[in-house]
Amino acid sequence: MGLFGFLSKQFVDVIDWVDEPGTLAVRHPMQGRAIQSGAQLTVRDGQVVLFHREGQLADAFHPGLHTLETGNLPLLTALLNWDKGFASPFTADVTFFSQKEQTGRKWGTTQPITVRDPEFGALRVRAFGSYSFRIEQVAAFAVKLMGSLERVTVADIEPQLRAAIAAALASALGTGEIAFIDLAANQTALSERLKAAVDPAFAQWGLACTSFYIESLSLPEEVQAMLDKASAMRVAGDVDTFARFQAAAAPSGEDATVQIEKLHRLVTIGAITQQEFDAKKSELLGRIR
Question: Where is the SPFH domain (predicted)?
């Protein structure tokens, strides 16, 4: 049976709703109809039902089969000034909320975010990933996102969620504390950091961000090309340095002390490490003992 299967009847005595993919909340305002006292309300696993009367939140029902009467409608009873045991039909808005986790949602930066990188200066970064969420605080969601709407879907609120993610991303990366190369190399830690930044924004709407992942961090093509060129130059420099190191350390007619002096100059200018110098120095000294 779909939502309120007895809509053709003046008095509704069976109320239920089967979750629909991508739907977070559904309300039926009972236009011209009344709920029969003793009506059966079915709340399935992962659902919460709220009753409203004249714009005011009233009673909430969690999973189970409920018989609607004054005993389990205390707030609505108070709003309507019912006497205990009141058994006449009544009107109220009934809203079903799905607390099912909405998985596999995608997010991404529509425009590059400018961040201050400690190594390369200002960089424009793009980021993409996935996240999941669910309704955590039903009352907050009802007031801040549902309002007077009859239906709220994931598609309705996703632009707002993505905007919150983009703001959190810009704030987290804008400090420039971590170099872009290090960020890209440790996406798990960055994902956790960004989830912590996203959580408060989701919470204000009654939502919980249950998972958050960065799947890609990238730079504009022209910036990436410049970094690739710089990296290639560094590699070429390393190769040249290694060749000079090998030449200086190779057996030759030169005195060992002369070769050690050459190696020491390479250490001084930073062309080789102290560890490499010490190893070759020991090797050269060993030949003359």
Answer: 27-235
Q: Pick 74 or 98 by higher pLDDT.
A: 98
Query: Token pair for residue 94?
Result: 């009934």
Structure token pair of residue 67: 């018989």
- How does 93-105 read in b/e, with b if 16+ C-beta sit within 10 Å? bbbbbbbeebeeb
The DSSP bridge pattern shows strands 151-153 and 23-28 to be: antiparallel
- Please give the model's pTM, rounded to 2 decimal places: 0.69
Give me the helices (H) in 174-220, please. Answer: 180-185, 187-203
Q: Exposed, middle or buried, 198 (CB in 10 Å: 0-12/13-18/19+)?
A: buried
Which homologous superfamily does the CATH classification assign to the domain defined by 102-219?
A: Band 7 domain (3.30.479.30)
d(C-alpha 105, C-alpha 211), whole Å: 10
pLDDT tens, residue by residue, 124-135:
888 899 999 999
Torsion, Cα 136 141 143 146, to 10 degrees, reads: -150
Alpha-carbon distance of 149 to 131, in angstroms, equals 25
Of 13, 24, 39, 18, the C-alpha closest to 150 is 24
Q: Residue 242 above 60 pLDDT? A: no
Residue whose entry in the numeric block shows the structure tokens 């389990």: 72
**Is residue 75 predicted with pLDDT exceeding 50?**
yes
Q: Which residue has the tokens 């007077």?
A: 148
Q: Give 71's DSSP letter.
A: G
Q: Are 29 and 91 in contact (CB under 8 A)?
A: no
| Rounded distance between C-alpha atoms, residue 58 and residue 52, angstroms | 5
